[in-house]
Amino acid sequence: MKLEIISPDKSVFTGEVSLVQLPGIDGSFEILNNHAPLISVLKKGKIKVIDDQHKERFFEVNGGVIEVLKNKVLILAE
Fold this sequence. Notes:
Strand content: over 45%
Largest sheet: 5 strands, mixed, barrel
Number of strands: 6
CATH architecture: Sandwich
Helix content: under 10%
């Protein structure tokens, strides 16, 4: 699936990933390939990404919003 993480200043990450783990306001959750459509609010914490090369990457956020639709994940992060 395609992941795009955008902050107010710049595009932080764009690429193909197999897993995204996020700090939701009601608890941590994961997005995998073919996930149902979703819109949610994020709290301060770490976003964990496993890319298509099976490499783990982490991104610190101070909150934000996530949208999942048709194997595209868009994160608007602070």
